[in-house]
Amino acid sequence: MKKIEIITRTFKLDEVKSALSAIGVKGMTVSEVKGFGRQGGHKEVYRGAEYQVDFVPKIKIEAVVEDDFAPEVVEAARKAAHTGEVGDGKIFVSTVDEVVRIRTGETGEEAI
Amino acid sequence: MNFTDNAFILVCAALVMFMTPGLALFYGGLVRSKNVLATIMQSFIMLGLMSVLWAVIGYTLSFGSDIGGLIGGLDFIFLKGVGMTNAGSPAENLPHLTFMIFQCMFAVITPALITGAFAERMKFGGFMIFSALWLILVYAPMCHWVWGGGWMGAMGALDFAGGAVVHMSSGAAALCCAILIGKRKGHGSTAFIPHNLPMTILGAAILWFGWFGFNAGSALAADGAAANAFVTTHMATAAAALSWIIAEWMHGGKATTLGAASGAVAGLVAITPAAGFVTPMWAIALGLGAGVICYGGIMLKNKFGYDDALDVVGIHGLGGTYGALATGLLATVNAEGLIAGNAHQLWVQFVSVVATWAFCFAMTFIIFKVVDATIGLRASDEEQDKGMDIAEHSETGYQW
Fold first, then answer.
1. In angstroms, rounded to a whole number, what is the distance separating the alpha carbons of residues B88 and B83?
2. If pLDDT is split at 50, 70 and 90, which confidence band does A41 have?
3. Mean per-residue pLDDT, B184-200
4. CATH no. for residue B330?
5. Strand partners, A58
6. Are the Cβ atoms of A48 and B295 closer than 8 angstroms?
């Protein structure tokens, strides 16, 4: 099983969610995060005082899927989140050892 | 006694009362979220502390029978003899109680104005003692000098609604406090970004609204002078909001909402001493100058290195000073300034500016040092990290 973490622009949340739902991803977790990469931060000015804001608000979407399904999910997410400008974000894929559905006790791919 | 005037001034008193919670929101939005309650409290509780002190001792020190031009006597201590008729009232058209409560609201907001200078780092207990002493030792004498029959009024200084009594005095005290209490922890390395600008802008709007009571009410009658003060107040404020954002735009930035709100307050401050003495057109000119000058004023703290957290010196100190001098320059209504051929008025205004700054700064210095040495005023670094809301009040502004 693979965990796919998509960190991207906040306004892309709905598009990514719809794209993943459309190809059959059954659940996901979303959080508001802050960070920076090549985009860097931005400047804010209050009464003439300039502040460099390093951490830019982003959205993080996490979904766990079967191994074979993962490449399709990554591609769908990438297409949905893509604008072509610096700051589109990143997708991380990692291996998940175990999943347990709390209600039934099912484990492994059954529990996804 | 005039019933129309009485009705008008009572409403104006309520308008001025509303300025203090407006100021609380104005300041509250400008601090970081961990200090929002402590900052709001420092304004709001002045409605409690200053009102009681005013009735007990402040009013009589300000408006009691004159002692050497310096202070009022104890005739009205505990509001003795301050009643429903105009007997003994400094304004013969008003019940003495009406005059007293209108003046009370000015005494409430003035110490609240100072709190912007030491925001995010002042202990609450020491702050309360400091503010109480400040009312008695700085505000009451200033009020007496200008409006209570003291030397400054006798000299002919023009201060329609409190340029010296309210704004220069709080501005001078703010400068003194900002220097003495020191910079906030993390100053220069941490970003002090306002946590809720919509709150600040709402606060500025409430100030603008309440200021009609402040300035038009200072005519102390429902007459033409009140109408003039109402209009000049509005026009100067409008012009200053515009000129501030134009200044920041041309200075290489963008027109900001905080700039519009700050400009409006700068205009309100600057027109305060002049409201009853200038024409609406000169009020626009005065306001245009106020926005630009106070925009420059907020840069001073970076140049000189004091941490006037919410720009009380730049806006109230400088704006009040500019307004007092501009009154000497532009007065043509019920008074004569330089453009009416009376150069002497400008000199009188200048003397009142120097005396106000010197007296308020020096007296604030003494009060601060005494309270700091006995009770303590500056919050520790740990308390500042935690936030003043938790450290001083055991509560937080937002639950999430």
1. 9
2. confident
3. 94
4. 1.10.3430.10
5. A33
6. yes
Q: Enter the pTM of the model.
A: 0.91
Q: Which domain holds residue B257?
A: 3-390
Q: Give the dihedral sign, CA B194/B198/B201/B203.
A: negative
In eight-state DSSP terms, residue B394 is: S
Residue B357 token pair: 């700054």
The verdict on A47 touching B (C-beta cutoff 8 Å) is: yes
Q: Examine residue B259 and state whether it is found in any structural domain, yes or no.
A: yes
Residue among B375, B308, B386 at smallest CA distance from B124: B375
**Do the domain assignments include residue B148?**
yes
Predicted local confidence at residue B192, as pLDDT: 93
| Residue B182: C-alpha distances to residues A68, B37, B123, B278, B378 (Å) | 62, 21, 13, 39, 8
Closest CA relative to residue B309, chosen from B167, B114, B45, B108? B114
Over residues B277-290, mean pLDDT = 98
Contact in structure between B149 and B61 (CB atoms under 8 Å): no
Per-residue pLDDT, averaged over B200-210, amounts to 98
- Identify the pLDDT of residue B188: 85
- Residue B122: per-residue pLDDT: 97
| Contact assignment for B311 to A47 by CB distance below 8 Å | yes
- Please report the ipTM that was assigned to this predicted complex: 0.81
- Chain A residues in contact with B191 (beta carbon < 8 A): 44, 51-53
Residue B271 counted as domain residue:
yes
Assess whether pLDDT exceeds 70 at residue B400: no
Residue recorded with tokens 């005095």: B169
Q: Cα B115 to the chain's mean position, in Å? A: 11
Interface test mutation site (partner A, options B187, B193, B292, max chain A beta carbons within 10 A): B193
Percent with pLDDT over 90 in chain B: 96
Nearest to B298 among A48, A51, A53 (CB): A48
- CB neighbourhood size of B24 (10 A): 26
Domain count, chain B: 1
> Would you call A55 an interface residue with chain B, using a CB distance cutoff of 8 Å?
no
B397 found inside a domain? no
B70: β partners: none
pLDDT tens figures, B38-81 = 999 999 999 999 999 999 999 999 999 999 999 999 999 999 99
**Mean pLDDT value across chain B:** 97
Contact assessment for residue B100 and residue B6, using Cβ atoms and an 8 Å cutoff: no
Is A48 close to B193, i.e. CB distance below 8 A? no
Side-chain half-sphere of B272: how many Cα atoms within 13 Å? 30
H or E stretch at B26? helix B3-30
Q: Could you give all domains of chain A from N- to C-terminal order, each with its CATH number?
A: 2-111 (3.30.70.120)
Q: Does position B306 have pLDDT exceeding 80, yes or no?
A: yes
For residue A45, give the chain B residue with the closest CA: B253
Q: Name, in order, each residue with C-beta under 8 angstroms of B352's C-beta and a sequence gap of 6 or more.
A: B146, B152, B155, B157, B159, B164, B324
